Amino acid sequence: MEFRTLLSICMTIILVILSIVTHASTDLNYKTLTFEKRLISLYDIASKLGKKLSIPDSILCELNVGSQRYFSSYYFKSNFGINFPNILVTRSGIKLAKLKDKVFRKVHQALAARFSNIRNLATFEVNLNVNWNKIVPKNLNFDVKLISQNKTGFISANLIGNDYGHSVNIPFGILVRASFKVPTATRNIRKGEKISYKITTASIPYATARLLASENELNSMVAATSIPKGAKIYKSYLEFPYHFDKGSIIKVTFKSGNVEVEVPATVVSQNGPNIRVRFQNRVYSAKIVDGKAVIQNG
């Protein structure tokens, strides 16, 4: 009895081993199906095989680009009762280099938004430190998010995308070389004179560029000090041409449509063309226009 039992166990083990070997040798033959999508269903495979199914669809796997998943014919038969061959499912992608133009366009858009308030910016060029060989989904939708910037102009950034509901995050670096508008005097300018200038562009530190006068300031202000010919013109070299001392009495024009009324008022404070005056115990905000304080719709 014991011998028969032992023999039965041995035969079972041998049959299992033979079954595994048989499946393994059979599994060497498989059909490769390649998809662009992330979630692969039973119906996706059936469609590739040119087969129609009468059973409910089922999600079989979720694949990142460049990855693969093997399904044996035994798997399809035992789980769904269908006769499919051995299948190797793969997901295709493209190198990020294929999207280079789009990446640069997104980077320029992000930088333009960040630099919109930078004084005297003329142009900027960028070099990207990106792994262009990285495999990404073919139809990847993405944006560029700027993270931080150091003093040398290097900006850390992320390429943030969506892969069928799955987030994609690719860090990279941006080296920015900016050129700024540099105003220089075209003659020797004395204190109180209007500014004669020309604009050139140069790659200078932003810390310097932000101190230079803007074209609007150059056209609306006068020299606060002597400026030699060829010198860079900084905002601190300029002053507003009309200045009224606090407490002084000036004439203020109240304008409402075509009606203008001129009255005396007391200066409370002034900041360039913006001036605050008091008239009949009430403070008004006015604007200096051609040397006169004007209150619109007062």
Q: Summary?
A:
The protein has 298 residues and is of the alpha+beta class. It has helices at 2-27, 42-49, 73-80, 100-114, 206-209, 215-220; strands spanning 31-35, 39-41, 59-62, 68-71, 87-91, 94-95, 121-129, 135-136, 141-149, 154-163, 166-185, 197-202, 222-223, 238-239, 249-256, 259-271, 274-279, 282-289, 292-296.
Features of this protein?
298 residues, alpha+beta, SH3 type barrels, five-stranded antiparallel sheet, five-stranded mixed beta barrel
Give an overview in words.
The chain has 298 residues and is an alpha+beta fold. Among the domains are: 2-92, no CATH class; 249-296, Roll (SH3 type barrels), CATH 2.30.30. It contains six helices and 19 strands. The chain has helices at residues 2-27, 42-49, 73-80, 100-114, 206-209, 215-220; strands at 31-35, 39-41, 59-62, 68-71, 87-91, 94-95, 121-129, 135-136, 141-149, 154-163, 166-185, 197-202, 222-223, 238-239, 249-256, 259-271, 274-279, 282-289, 292-296. The strands form six sheets. Strands 7, 9, 10, 11 and 12 form a five-stranded antiparallel sheet that branches. Strand 17 (274-279) and strand 18 form a beta hairpin. The longest helix has 26 residues, at 2-27. The protein is elongated, with a radius of gyration of 38 Å. 16% of the residues are buried. The model is unreliable at 18-27 (pLDDT under 50).
